[in-house]
Amino acid sequence: MLPEIKGLNEECGVFGVWGHVDASHITYYGLHSLQHRGQEGAGIVVSDREKLKIHKGMGLVNEVFNPDILDSLSGTGAIGHVRYTTAGNSDFINCQPLQFNSQTGSLALAHNGNLVNATALKRQLEHQGSIFQTTSDTEVIAHLIKRSGYPDIKDSVKNALTMVKGAYALAVLVEDFMMVALDPNGLRPLSIGKLGDAYVVSSETCAFDIVGAEFVREVHPGELITIDDEGLHIEEFSPSTKRTICSMEYVYFARPDSNVEEINVHAARKNLGKQLAIESPIEADVVTGVPDSSISAAIGYAEEAGIPYELGLIKNRYVGRTFIQPSQALREQGVKMKLSAVRGVVEGKRVVMIDDSIVRGTTARRIVKLLREAGAKEVHVRISSPPIINPCYYGIDTSTKGELIASTKSQQEICDEMGADSLSYLSVNGLMSGIGRPDTMENCGQCLACFTGQYPTDIYPETDHPYDKVLGGK
Amino acid sequence: MLPEIKGLNEECGVFGVWGHVDASHITYYGLHSLQHRGQEGAGIVVSDREKLKIHKGMGLVNEVFNPDILDSLSGTGAIGHVRYTTAGNSDFINCQPLQFNSQTGSLALAHNGNLVNATALKRQLEHQGSIFQTTSDTEVIAHLIKRSGYPDIKDSVKNALTMVKGAYALAVLVEDFMMVALDPNGLRPLSIGKLGDAYVVSSETCAFDIVGAEFVREVHPGELITIDDEGLHIEEFSPSTKRTICSMEYVYFARPDSNVEEINVHAARKNLGKQLAIESPIEADVVTGVPDSSISAAIGYAEEAGIPYELGLIKNRYVGRTFIQPSQALREQGVKMKLSAVRGVVEGKRVVMIDDSIVRGTTARRIVKLLREAGAKEVHVRISSPPIINPCYYGIDTSTKGELIASTKSQQEICDEMGADSLSYLSVNGLMSGIGRPDTMENCGQCLACFTGQYPTDIYPETDHPYDKVLGGK
Amino acid sequence: MLPEIKGLNEECGVFGVWGHVDASHITYYGLHSLQHRGQEGAGIVVSDREKLKIHKGMGLVNEVFNPDILDSLSGTGAIGHVRYTTAGNSDFINCQPLQFNSQTGSLALAHNGNLVNATALKRQLEHQGSIFQTTSDTEVIAHLIKRSGYPDIKDSVKNALTMVKGAYALAVLVEDFMMVALDPNGLRPLSIGKLGDAYVVSSETCAFDIVGAEFVREVHPGELITIDDEGLHIEEFSPSTKRTICSMEYVYFARPDSNVEEINVHAARKNLGKQLAIESPIEADVVTGVPDSSISAAIGYAEEAGIPYELGLIKNRYVGRTFIQPSQALREQGVKMKLSAVRGVVEGKRVVMIDDSIVRGTTARRIVKLLREAGAKEVHVRISSPPIINPCYYGIDTSTKGELIASTKSQQEICDEMGADSLSYLSVNGLMSGIGRPDTMENCGQCLACFTGQYPTDIYPETDHPYDKVLGGK
Amino acid sequence: MLPEIKGLNEECGVFGVWGHVDASHITYYGLHSLQHRGQEGAGIVVSDREKLKIHKGMGLVNEVFNPDILDSLSGTGAIGHVRYTTAGNSDFINCQPLQFNSQTGSLALAHNGNLVNATALKRQLEHQGSIFQTTSDTEVIAHLIKRSGYPDIKDSVKNALTMVKGAYALAVLVEDFMMVALDPNGLRPLSIGKLGDAYVVSSETCAFDIVGAEFVREVHPGELITIDDEGLHIEEFSPSTKRTICSMEYVYFARPDSNVEEINVHAARKNLGKQLAIESPIEADVVTGVPDSSISAAIGYAEEAGIPYELGLIKNRYVGRTFIQPSQALREQGVKMKLSAVRGVVEGKRVVMIDDSIVRGTTARRIVKLLREAGAKEVHVRISSPPIINPCYYGIDTSTKGELIASTKSQQEICDEMGADSLSYLSVNGLMSGIGRPDTMENCGQCLACFTGQYPTDIYPETDHPYDKVLGGK
């Protein structure tokens, strides 16, 4: 399912280009294809080789930019960012990229992920006299770069990256080149493509298709890659570790037309659905998926189970930020908002409803109710991922542990609470085999921490949960 | 496929409610669910029993209305409209509902469809001294009502409806009641539902699910139904004729969760896909549909053919009116806009691409190209409706005859032009049996004019093609 | 003083141009200089010789138009309008110009003034089958033109004008020429200028200075002037009567840089101030005027009285529609809004405060209070016009008679109520001699009805007070 | 004249309040009355005793704030800022107040003025690892405060202020109190008022009148005043020096209803006009002033010279940021923009035109031309300040020396160039005696550097001219 229905807040999207006369336009289209990774803010910084120019704002990519603004951002290199969370206009200050000016040159950063030792680093930096204008981890990285003080900015970036821990896919722009880096565990995706003579980088490969670029390679864990007029310069700032890419990218976060480490996301999801049909079969008349992110798994389940796949749930396409929520009274009278069940499809039927994950369980409960009201005889909920019982500290906002329904309730309790006839999750093994990463290889694992509690990095006592940070909580 | 990709302009959506304290809010949610029928303008008129109040504007429903505006539209009866076409802000004047004030009471009208004798009526009315501020047929109906001059407005409406010819689903609001009427051929859909003690009317039944109402009945051809505090009052203003509802409502225009004359639209489309698989089978690896309107047919084709259904084409969800179109140069470099092919799904595969219809053929050609560029080995185009060879005069903008590719080129020429490996259309009989209307019955036919040229009404020499009217052309 | 402080609503402004390649731009600048005549809505219709194109909207001229819109309004003839009153966006429908389309050609009208027999005409037209979409008098004139039915539109316009009574300065645009007309009493100002080979018309001559045009002549009462590529064609549609131009144009409504019937408005106001000093002298230390409209009179009073003129009251320039009004609590604590008294100027001084008129008296009371709080020892109020004791039916909204403080209270009561040390009005004779119209001439009178009750036209029992019409009241 | 006509950019305005439940609203009205000091950006930070909350943006005060935003800024202390310069939305980052967060508490700063050693301080701070996100001097002060590292923030502020040189009126907000400080030369005005139990601070006293507060005292040069729930705590962070307040505050920058060091600005300007009439008399028919800032001087000149004061020049009130500039072609045809001459007043007359200052001379030339075109027989320009021949480094943007017309041309050359019949400036002695500061006193001087070149502080070789900084130039 889509994040906004779950109340989930997700991570961000990063895009960059070096060596193209239309750098700002290319970045606009790239960010646009990453819009699902963050709808709350967007920004682009360009370099025209002499200076950096920035524009950013709250809202969707096509709300923040217009043709005049894009044209004013002339230059041949650019990095851009779409951002996930916020409350209020004043949160503008947290929009990325962040740009820093100094008498020796400018620096812009865009970052996807979450650091686990940001609090400690920030305390230390403040002690040394640094001041912070934002609440983002990105500013911590910038301070560390500045304080490294090497004559070559690349050395300063490498030095800074040895100090931060957690998840980061980072793009850095200076006047004369662009740098990208990935954390040593490779928790977030980041890929490089080629567009004529120019290079592009993107959180997801779908952006390459949109801008007409060809996929070149993924950025590997612990790499710092400099892109300038000569091409790519690859360095390692950290010893190679086993990659533990976030499983949730496959389960629901990435776009189905992206490949993550060369595995197509739609295909992976469809396999998860098939695997789920093998593990948890049920006699039923129709299979339906919660749009948009569970469609692929539902198709797979239906195909494997030999039950017709149908559009049993329809999403209203025009619900934007300005949509007026129905009052409590109207909601009780049955006014729906974003999703409705198709009576003509589910009435009198035994329905298998596929969802990609359950966090708090409120959305699933609401959808089961929608299906029942539309006349479904039976509703069997099948979840194409294992129960989420641990919080994520790497940028996926799956809430704090107390709010994760699977961490406090049994499967049967959850099933009863959502009013379903049956409920099954995919097993962790099913998840791994469904995605099909060649994980016998040394460097090709995946992060399963939210299911298993085995975090690939240290989690410090002071590690901020990203959601707390946003709210300014304790 | 969706209209905006085809450059098609479609008809409109009408919604109304009588007897609910939150009439404006209910209408807002109703119009919202009809948004696919018109994205260019929206309006609501309410009655508070003493006077009518109106608000309308250019844009989506949730751009035109905000909470303050909805609250200011207090009243217990309302009609609303979403509108399809436009050029420029000044076209505000054509937004509906239209409201007319007089010393004896006010009158508001909202109308879906297109009259075939509007030009002649207008000439006659102008000759008699009427002046026109809009270019819409609705104003013609209003003038006719006013000139009828009966003491009871219902008689004036009936009198006016005997003079207009063509397609219309009409909602009329006065201070004390609401009226709805359907043309004698029933070319457009219009249904009545019940929401507690209140009645609602809607172009499509999906709105009933959204606002929590229950379906009561369709408005039948030639009926004028008055809804007041006593309930429904049904009259016939025209002798009953065979209903010829527009086939295109099933093929691509209505929402899949609507029922049109008690046939679910998704189910009908899936059947069209199955029928198409029976008529035009092909050996292939994957079936994919052009989002959003061809998904159901693609599922049906895949199920019948036993070929896996996949998400081979992805639509970018965030393309709005303000989206910046790529320059010609960028488009030639491969920058995509709204739709992209999923390389991970189609690369090296034989693809069956299902589309619901072909008008000018430009979109299909572009999609075939997208699939080829993404590595499809073969592309077989299957269209879930027959060739469109005649223009529509009833509100579906399928362009003038010269622009209908199927009216000037052979099937093989079209196939070659779009670069497909094969192309097949559904037959007219396949269309009828796929939709499955019980058309042996006297009153249950369907309009097939755009395929067969057999128009259910007279077409006058002066009949304006609606598209011309919009452009103000000759 | 400015209308917005008094809660007065005023009449409108009309501008037109014929024969200039930049007709829409010229009209934009013209309307801009007439903005003080109406801040609530603006519109322009252009003719490109083949058709009319319109754009209008709620708000200030530079809110309604942008460069793209102006450019899209290509054409060599144009009329425009700024509008005074309204509540809510839905009042868009009343924005002018109004445009009417017919199969034989289009017609646009812009109108300043108020008809006194509109209600009767409307009833008659409705009886004959006309329908009304707006509440403006302009639509009545349009219906009358249409129903006149002469082959030559000029004859129809003349015919229509013989039926309407009241105040109107009217501009009419058709594809091939422009017409302007003034009511037989000449209640409203309307002038013609020349800009190269083009002609311009404007409610006030200040617009000629702004667009670089030269004054040619005023439109005389009862004239219909057609302006086409040949130049001016002057006809009389009504026998000549004595002109009775609205005195309030001189007193406070027109811009000081306009000439009304060749008398400069600033000079007239300064003379009113001098006359007032002669009629009502007082010993004082400083003279100050209520900005902006009473400044000229204050300068005149000071000069005649030999008392220094000072800026004792300052208006805050940036108070727009979106200004947040202080809460009652804050207002009681002394938070001011638009106007503040200058302590450094008035403290310990005997102040003569000049205002141009008193309607309800609330503003004057507030200003006296401001001056006292700023330390004024004495406050002597001098009004540069006679007491207003009768409502205006010609477009100046001086409220209904009950609300006119001078119609219900004695001068001493008013003085006490506003807390002034003394209060004097200008006499009617003083007003006439101050303005200095050569009224011995037959055709050069002025309307004094709001002071004297002698209306220059019949006032019908059903005459709508314009303010009622706006509110939709009885 | 007003800055926007001259292309001058000026300094800023600062406002603050401590101890009022409606702190954000009070600050809104205060900033509103300071709007003339900066129209490009506005911001407010409030303290609710637990944390700071901020909102700021580009535009006028009433564009940046709406009721919801003000209400969300709940708290009892607030500081606000209006800002003068900018180009483009991306300059948002330079809007003030700046807010800095740290684990030990937050800090917000708003600053009016310009530092002369900012470049050197910045270089040193960057060398120590500080990074800069803005180009404003305020961020330099913040870094210095942070690096001071005293346990008591007041000590850190004092320490920081000993390092900065130049002009500053500074407001600092932390959770529990507010601080204000003025540079040791007192180049900028800053006053304290009382509003019930609350204290307010403002760049100008006009804000006190607007919010209903009483003037208490000016902040003296070199003072740091802490305002908390106990009241005012006054400290000196610098030995007392002779005050050298900017003369331009009197000449044209401050509002006429403000008092600067207890001298009313209107009265001072009127005296400058009188002094000018004594120094440079001329035989003429009318005196007129360039609105708005030269009106007071014109009144004074007229009164002293015994020549009638008239409104010979009118400013169009509705020219906002969105006003569409006339094309070159239209300008050549005579289309005016913001200012027009009143033909009815100046035609055939010998006109004395009073302006407050001349920077580049382009505006004065344009106005002389306007007057001539409107028929003035003679135009005598009288400037109510001495020739500006030196740039300002303290925040008044009088351009670089090369662009100051009086630094490169003789008085006669300037007179010829602007097409005037005569030109006179006020003498420096005339300026001083006109303003009337009691400058025999030790601590009551004024800065005359732009006239005399005698700067009250050191000017470092690296001193940025503020205008350069804005443009990012070298």
Overview of the molecule:
- Chains A, B, C, D: This is Amidophosphoribosyltransferase.
- Chains A, B, C, D: Its EC number is 2.4.2.14.
- Chains A, B, C, D: Catalyzes the formation of phosphoribosylamine from phosphoribosylpyrophosphate (PRPP) and glutamine.
- Four copies of one chain form a homotetramer.
- With 474 residues, the first copy, chain A, is an alpha+beta fold.
- Chain A has two domains: 9-242, Glutamine Phosphoribosylpyrophosphate, subunit 1, domain 1; 260-455, Rossmann fold (3-Layer(aba) Sandwich), CATH 3.40.50.2020.
- The first copy, chain A, is 31% helix and 23% strand.
- Chain A is built from 19 helices and 23 strands.
- Chain A has a seven-stranded antiparallel sheet with strand order 3-2-4-1-10-9-11. Chain A has a six-stranded antiparallel sheet with strand order 5-6-7-8-12-13, with helices on one face. The first copy, chain A, has a four-stranded parallel sheet with strand order 17-20-21-22, with helices on both faces.
- In chain A, a hairpin with a 4-residue loop joins strand 2 and strand 3 (52-58).
- The two termini of chain A are 30 Å apart.
- Mean pLDDT of chain A is 88; it is low at 1-10, 86-90 and 467-474.
- At the A-B interface, helix 2, helix 3, helix 8, strand 16 and helix 10 of A face helix 2, helix 3, helix 8, strand 16 and helix 10 of B.
Lay out the secondary structure.
The structure is a homotetramer of 474-residue chains.
Chain A: H1 3-6, E1 13-18, H2 23-33, E2 41-47, E3 52-58, H3 61-64, H4 67-72, E4 77-83, E5 98-100, E6 107-112, H5 118-127, H6 137-148, H7 153-161, E7 169-173, E8 178-182, E9 191-195, E10 198-202, H8 206-211, E11 214-218, E12 223-228, E13 231-236, E14 244-246, H9 247-253, E15 259-260, E16 263-264, H10 265-279, E17 286-289, H11 295-305, E18 313-315, H12 328-332, E19 339-341, H13 343-346, E20 350-355, H14 362-373, E21 378-383, H15 405-408, H16 411-418, E22 422-425, H17 428-435, E23 445-447, H18 449-452, H19 466-471
Parallel strand pairs in A: 14-23, 17-20, 20-21, 21-22
Antiparallel strand pairs in A: 1-4, 1-10, 2-3, 2-4, 5-6, 6-7, 7-8, 8-12, 9-10, 9-11, 12-13, 15-16, 18-19
Helix pairs in contact in A: 5-6, 6-7, 9-10, 10-11, 10-17
Binding site for Mg(2+) (chains A, B, C, D): 293, 355-356
Function (chains A, B, C, D): Catalyzes the formation of phosphoribosylamine from phosphoribosylpyrophosphate (PRPP) and glutamine.
Domain Glutamine amidotransferase type-2 (chains A, B, C, D): 12-230
